[in-house]
Structures are given as structure tokens and as C-alpha cells.
């Protein structure tokens, strides 16, 4: 592994809006059911409840390849999809697959909480989860930009890609906004 | 590029070598060139634990599903699949963490775990859902900031803990920090600590009266003392050995009323050698130091240790640290200024009262960030690191009550400090109070968890927090501690209200319960251990808390503590207050009892269904188990009344009742003590029906031991016998459950 193009650990977040009261604890039975029904791809292991932490990862569906969390820690409330284990193909393809996985899970959640939860369709947040391969600096962002643009174009049909400035200790964060 | 290259030159060579070796061992295990048992102990000694569902099986509430990991049958230990996520324990000696270390821990939590850092009841940090192949990088990044995970688990010297107020405490005899640090360094990787049969825990306390170090519940507990010798004050320790919680708790025994400071490390080394040589190795259930001290007797143990001490070749490390005693002294960033009319943010006064401690050094205070259930996020960890740099520049201390303590905050800066904590979501009042419930991981992530300790703790915390402001001071000061099983990682024995997870059958269902313990004491360095009085369904534990706190408020004499109130009214009355709560409503009346807190799955193995009979059929075994529980409780009462011999008889009687009940499922007319014991051994122990996945045959052995020798009437021994009897009866309940699952008559 040599640089950002080899990145395997990353997360994408799609934002969510509560249209009616919706407690984070309501995601617990849903995620347990998803495990039982194998409702999303991959090996699904357990549900972790961090609802006691304000601005935390909320309720998390822990998987082997990826985690799904109703997260309030990274940016606004939303569905955070975190890739953990390596997947094949070029980075742009891996990013696109992650965005599509998040969107598919988001659509399922919209169905689960019909009328109460709306998942944003035209925006996402990318997070590098590997400070060795893609640290939070301009060079890593520029190295990742082509893959991010390609993935965002494939999913959103064209998107602006903008690095989020802030605490340099945090993960490299890039906002993808549908044009 | 990898972390090894990136951090070259920043990792101490010895640590680097160890990590390289471990990385090689990972490779060899993947090729099948290391036995899984050997590899398991290897990884445990580096803090790499298994986690719930790592056998690849998980009940979804209806059936058991297989987790088909890509590495297939490859294991990292017996019944522990390679790809299954695990827990990483990270030792933090005396709980001391600097800002840079906090930042690295935050990065690791994000990149290798679930973004959460968990503070344990022994001042460690734990990360969950870690893949074993990520551990070498994780270790290197820790090593680069001076942290090792070496010997965080396994049969080793675990994290050396100490009072978080050490150095600033108003009551301490002296600062124990440099001694804890020296002890931790000296014993880490020492050749004499590598061959233990079981783990070994050391704690330091600055004073005897206050609880922060919990010295009495450790294998080795050191309480700071001074003595005047030849007109000069000399430092040393009131030195205790053989304490420990676990399933059957033992209070530590006084080895030496004054062990001079220069003898601390050589005596610790001598104890290690004796423990390694004479401690139990085959049966892990009797392998802790407490069993060896008990077996030999304190006097003989002391004699053997002191002989060993005399035979040791001198080591400069024994006393080398004494020349650097002040190296760990902390200095404030700014001169202290008194509080002087600064604006007090909303909530500040309550927080000040519960979370702030006035230091020995005038004008300075120590303030706690309250971590709900001991958890904080990576983002909060960075914010805490910033606060650490800005406010004091000194390390923070993790506490055994799962919070973070900042020291050296000038009193005039407390309002701003509080506002900063609030901004990061860690400014809740109530640290160390009844609201600040301590809990082990329990069924959330622990393989041994029986009930959801964190689920219960979160529920209690939420309910109590809403009443915190209006709560009577006497109730607010109580401690609640919860463990998911009998192993006591939540330290349930040393709280006013303790709970540990058990299960009970109700028809064809299994219902999560908690045993309720009263009579424990956090004060006086864990001065008394509570005993279980009754098992109550999990969902009714909040009512238990309400009733007992109300009963205490209404019934206590002036200034009486909860411990004193329980002692005065007696456990029979306390139990009577709760007995109706033990009832489990049928599932058609209230299904919520059949799942645990914060987990909607039906609490049972998936292949069990609703019974076919129209009415409830209570088996004779159920009656026998209920009788056995009653007998253990009566034994407690007898002990409380000073009738130790009677208590011992009843404790043994309870085990025999439970054993007879089990045997009678196969041999209805069994009678006579010897016959019951023989049949029980043949039919239940030898067949491993009466067999705990964690403790093996230990609980059965409690009965065999008790019938072989006349009971020791000493109160301590009888107390232990009662504990053993309770565990035996619990094991009989588990056995009954297993029998049901196997389609046997139960």
C-alpha cells in the first residue's frame, strides 16, 4: 500500500432529516431485524447502541465488511456507512459502491419510518478513515479528487467536490454536492 | 508505506521487537503453524480479547444464524473465528493519560474500532469491534506515544491502578503515583511474572479511609503509610495480599502493617515467584492468588514469601526509582486564583457540588468529566486533549468509576472549564453519585454476559437523572454497580446497590434477571462485600432501586448510611420489600419481560418456542431450586445473626437441595447425602451437564469440597461458602436451561 489510491478504509455519510419525532432508539429493532432478514449485503454481526452519547454514533449496525450508523458525530444527523475490510477494484469504483450501499440502506430506512425520516439525495460526506494512506491534508485531497469526482458523477450525475476545512487532527472530509 | 516505517525511531526498540514478533505470529497462525491455544494466550497477553458472537453463531431471537466469515474455519483461539471482531484492552497505568495519548487513542478508535473509547473499572481503555490483523499497526501507534498493551489480558500482571487523586488528595499520606508507575514498569514483562496460573492485579491507595484505590479487592493492595524511624519520617505501605472480586470475593489480608518503600518491588517480585511456583495451574477457577493465600494460610504464605525474598539476588531496579520520586510531580500551568464572582453558567452549581474536588494545593481543584457508561467518542477525546493542554498541561486520570479527572484547574477557571465540558457533551453533574451507574460491557460485547448490564445502567441513569436535582442528598450519594454475570467486572460487590446478571426459566421461555446485592461498601478501599438477596426480572430492577431508596429514606435513623441501614434492619426485611417483584408475568400479559434492556430480541435461544400446555406446569425441579435459593438466603440471615455454624449447614443444604432436584429428574427417589452427591457427580458433572462454559466444573466442585470436610466456622469462610452456594444454585438454574434445550426433562 502506497498512497490514497489504495484507500480501503473510508466512510460516506448521507444526511437525514426527521420530519416527525423519531428517537434514535427506534433504530435498534430495525437493525436487529435487518440482521435477522439479512436485509443489506454483507455479514451483519450486531447492533451497538450508543444512544447515551449526545453527538455520538447513535445506533450502529455492525458488520464485517462495513458498519451502518445513525450518526450525529460527523456533520449533521445521517446514515454513516463505514467500509472496514478491503474490496476489489479501483478506488472510484469502491467509492461508488459505498455511496450506492449507503443510498440503498437510506431508502430502506425511509420505508421503515415512512413520513418520519427523509434521506437527502443530492449530497454526501466522504471521510478517509486511514491517516497513513490519506491524511487530512491538501495533497491527499488532490490525490483523491479524481476518484471522488468520478464516483459522485456516477451516483449523482455530476457533483461538486469540496474539502471540509477544520481541525487537522480529524479525518480528511470531503463534501460531495450534486450539481 | 506502513506504520512501522512511518513511526521508525519513535517506538522503543524492545516494544517494536515485540510487536514485530506478534505480527509474525499472526502470519504463522494464518498458515496453521501455531496451535490455536498457544496463539490465544499470545494475543491475550497483548490485550487482544475475543468478543461476543466470535464463535460465528448468533441468535437473532428466533433462530441461531451462522456468521459466514471469509476466513472460514481459521481461528484465533478455541471456538474463536479469525475474522470475528474482538476487543482491544489498552493498559493505562494508574489511569494517567496525556493530551498526545488521548489524540492517538481517538485516531485508533476511529480507524480500527467503532469510534468509541470505553473506560473500564480498572482504569484501562477498551476499543471494540477490532479486527486482529489491525492490531500490529494499532500497537505501533500506541507504542510511539508510550503506551503498551502488553499483559493487558492473560495470566499476567494487569494494569496497575491507583487513586486518581494521588498527589492532590487532602487525605493522602503521600503521592503513590511514582510507586504505581515503578511497580507497573518493574513487573511488566519481568521473567518472574510470565508463568502465572491466572491474572494478578495490583492497586495503590494514598489513604485507608477513602475508596479511590480499592486496595482491599486486589491481589496486592498498597496503602500509603509513614513511620518515624530514628527521628526521621520513613515511607512505606500497609501491604495487603489475596483480595479479589470475581465470582467469590475475598477481602485482602494484611501481609505487613508497614512495608518500607525499598521493599515494595522485591516483595512484589517474591510474591510473583511464589505465585508462579505454588499457585494452581490446572484449574483456572482456583488459580488466583487469593486461593493460594487461603490454602496456605496467611502466616505460612508470608513465611514462604519472605524466604523467597531473602533468596533473591539484588536488583538495582528495586530502589532506582526512589531517586526519581518527584519525576511524576505535576505543576500547574498558571498560579491559582480564587473564585471571584465569575458568572456561573446554568447547571454549574450542581456540577460543582458533585464533580469538583478541592485539591490539597490551595486554589486548585480537580474536576471530573462524566462519561455516560464510561464511553466517549473520538471527537470528545480530542476535545479533552485540547482542554488538558489549555487548562493544566498535566495528564488526566481515568477513574475506576469510569470517568476522566482533570487536575490543577484554578478555582477561578472552573466556570469556563465547565462551559467547555458542556460544549463537548461531558458536563453532566453527578459524577460518583447514584446517577453515575458503573457497568461492565455485559451482553453488549462480552462473551460471558448473561444480562444486559449496560442496558440496565443506561435505563437507570436516564431515570435517575430526571430526579437528580430533587433527590435527597443521602440517596444521591449512593453507588450502583452492575455486572452482566457473576464475574464482577462491574464491581457489583462493592456498591450500595449491586446487580449481576442471571437468567430464570418461565415456562418454555428464559427471562433475563439480575441478582440484587446489598451490604457492599465502596468506602474504606472496598471495605465490605455485598451478598445477593434475591433474583428479580431485569425489567423490574428500576422498581427495586425505587423501593430500596425510598425505604432507606423513610426508615433510616439520622445520618445513617445505606450500609448501616441494611445491617440494622437485616437482609430478611430488605428481601421482603422486593419479593413481589420477583414474579414474571406471562408473555401474553407483558412480553417486555422476555427481552433485555435495549435489545428487542427474545431472550432465549432461537429454537425454543411457546409450550403446548394450556396452563403453567411447574416441575419439581423448579420447586427444588426455589427451596435452594431460600436456603442460601436463610444462611445469610444466620450469618448476620452470628450463627456461623448454622449458616454453613444451610449453605451446604442449599447445594444439596439443588443437586437432589437435578438428580431427581433422572432418579426420582434419590435420597441420602452421599447418594445424592455420587449420583450428581456421575449424572451431571461427569456428563458435563452441570458445566459452565466459562467456569467449567468449578461450581460442582463447590459441593464436593463442602461435603468432604467439616465447614470452617470462621465468619469469612462461611461467607465464602454462602457465595459458593449461591453460585451453585445459579449453575443449577443454567443446567436446567441446558436440559430444556436438549429436550431433557427439567
Please outline the helices and strands.
The complex is a heterodimer of chains A (179) and B (746).
Chain A: E1 10-18, H1 27-37, E2 44-50, E3 58-63, E4 66-71, E5 78-83, H2 91-112, E6 117-119, E7 123-128, H3 138-156, E8 159-163, E9 173-178
Antiparallel strand pairs in A: 1-5, 1-6, 1-7, 2-3, 3-4, 4-5, 7-9, 8-9
Helix pairs in contact in A: 2-3
Chain B: H1 3-6, H2 13-30, H3 36-44, E1 48-49, E2 57-59, E3 64-66, E4 75-77, E5 80-81, E6 86-90, E7 96-97, H4 99-112, E8 116-119, E9 125-130, H5 135-143, E10 161-162, H6 177-187, E11 202-205, E12 220-229, E13 232-241, E14 253-260, H7 264-278, H8 289-296, H9 298-311, H10 317-320, H11 348-355, E15 356-358, E16 364-369, E17 375-377, H12 378-391, E18 396-398, E19 404-410, H13 414-423, E20 438-439, H14 453-467, H15 473-476, E21 480-483, E22 497-506, E23 509-518, H16 523-526, E24 531-537, H17 541-555, H18 562-569, H19 571-578, E25 595-596, E26 599-602, H20 620-640, H21 644-664, H22 673-685, H23 698-708, H24 715-741
Parallel strand pairs in B: 10-11, 11-12, 20-21, 21-22
Antiparallel strand pairs in B: 1-6, 2-3, 4-5, 6-9, 7-18, 8-9, 8-17, 12-13, 13-14, 15-16, 16-19, 18-19, 22-23, 23-24, 25-26
Helix pairs in contact in B: 2-3, 2-5, 4-5, 4-12, 6-7, 7-9, 8-9, 20-21, 20-24, 21-22, 21-24, 23-24
Explain what you see:
The complex is a heterodimer of chains A (179) and B (746). Chain A has 179 residues and is of the alpha+beta class. Chain A has one domain (4-178). Chain A has helices at 27-37, 91-112, 138-156, and strands spanning 10-18, 44-50, 58-63, 66-71, 78-83, 117-119, 123-128, 159-163, 173-178. The longest helix of chain A is centred in the middle third of the chain and has 22 residues, at 91-112. Chain A starts with 9 loop residues before the first strand and ends with a strand. Chain B has 746 residues and is of the alpha+beta class. Chain B has five domains: 3-143, Alpha-Beta Plaits (2-Layer Sandwich), CATH 3.30.70; 169-328, Sulfite Reductase Hemoprotein, domain 1 (2-Layer Sandwich); 348-423, Alpha-Beta Plaits, CATH 3.30.70; 433-607, Sulfite Reductase Hemoprotein, domain 1 (2-Layer Sandwich); 618-746, Nucleotidyltransferases  domain 2 (Four Helix Bundle (Hemerythrin (Met), subunit A), Up-down Bundle), CATH 1.20.120. Helix content of chain B is 38%, strand content 17%. In chain B, strand 22 (497-506) and strand 23 form a beta hairpin. The longest helix of chain B has 27 residues, at 715-741. Classes of the chains: A alpha+beta (179), B alpha+beta (746).
